[in-house]
Write a structure and sequence with these properties.
This protein is an alpha/beta fold. It folds into 3 domains: 110 residues, Tetrapyrrole methylase, N-terminal domain (Cobalt-precorrin-4 Transmethylase, domain 1, 3-Layer(aba) Sandwich); 108 residues, Tetrapyrrole methylase, C-terminal domain (Methyltransferase, Cobalt-precorrin-4 Transmethylase, Domain 2), CATH 3.30.950; 52 residues, no CATH class. It is 44% helix and 18% strand. It is built from 12 helices and 10 strands. The strands form 2 sheets. It has a 5-stranded parallel sheet, sandwiched between helices. Strands 6-7-10-8-9 form a 5-stranded mixed sheet. Helix 6 links the parallel strand 6 and strand 7. Helix 3 crosses helix 4, helix 6 crosses helix 7 and helix 10 packs across helix 11. It is elongated and about 85 Å long.
Length: 280
């Protein structure tokens, strides 16, 4: 009988955030795949977990995943952990999960800490709808494309950034998104947890005189839908209502439907469009 893959969330700072279930499973599996064995051994020692570990990281994820899948096919149970948080979220664990699923291996996720969710809940920004961007791409063209996509995003945006890139990223975000409410989250769940709720402009000014330190989770307010609608409506102000109406009629759209479409585009009533078209 084949083994199972256990996706085990580990603390992002405070060791008390590990679950009883994760500790039990780590004690029971045959092998633990860890992003950095030197870091993870401290966690395992703290909870007196004596199981063999194997290194599984970004640079060996494809080949090592094949090795681990073969072990599970042979009947061994494997747990995957990351340096902090839930494996597979902006993390090489995604590849192992993919290969295990393709091989028909049973996969179960043991929920726990995730920096993106932790930051979102303390941001004081909307949590009803949100998206996760992780780290912005390093490729210049892809990065520009992603930033452009973020420009009109109405959901709250959660992303990660390293300290040495923070200033550059803040300026790019400000240039593309304009001034937005944001929350900077550092040292989450740790003794010196730091949450800074400001605007992008204020953040740029702050880090001009304060050197960024530590890994950041940045939560950014989404664009207001009303602003997007108004922006779309304002695009039609360069032409008259009559020209707008004739544009649709010239495409073969009947008069009634054309007036309806003009009203919707411009955010005005159909009666108003009718009055302008017919001069009454």
């Amino acid at each position: 009988m084949a083994g199972k893959l256990y996706i085990c969330a580990t603390p992002i700072g405070n060791l008390e955030d590990i679950t009883y279930r994760v500790v039990r499973v780590l004690c029971e599996v045959d092998i633990i795949a860890a992003e950095d064995t030197r870091n993870s051994i401290k966690l395992l020692n703290h909870f007196n977990i004596k199981k063999p570990m194997t290194s599984y990281h970004e640079y060996n994820k494809v080949e090592k995943a094949k090795v681990l899948v073969d072990k599970m096919i042979a009947g061994e149970n494997v747990a995957i952990i990351t340096d902090a948080g839930t494996p597979g979220i902006s993390d090489p664990g995604e590849e192992l999960v993919k290969q295990a699923a393709e091989a028909g291996i049973e996969i179960t996720s043991l929920p726990g800490a995730a920096a993106c969710i932790t930051a979102l809940t303390v941001s004081a920004l909307s949590t009803r709808r949100f998206c996760f961007e992780a780290f912005l791409p390093s490729d210049k063209k892809e990065r520009a494309y992603v930033l452009q996509e973020m420009k009109n995003e109405t959901r709250t945006i959660v992303m990660y950034e390293a300290p040495h890139r923070l200033k550059k990223t803040l300026n790019e975000l400000y240039e593309c998104l304009g001034d937005r409410k944001i929350a900077f989250c550092r040292e989450l769940t740790k003794k010196h947890e730091d949450i800074m709720r400001v605007t992008l402009r204020q953040a740029i000014d702050y880090y001009e005189v304060n050197e960024p330190r530590g890994e950041y989770v940045i939560v950014i307010d989404g664009r207001q839908r009303e602003e997007l609608i108004k922006e779309k409506q304002d695009e039609w102000l360069d032409i008259s209502v009559e020209e707008h109406y004739n544009m649709y009629v010239d495409k073969g759209i009947d008069s009634k439907e054309a007036m309806k479409m003009v009203a919707k585009d411009r955010g005005i009533s159909k009666r108003e469009v009718y009055s302008i078209i017919h001069g009454c």
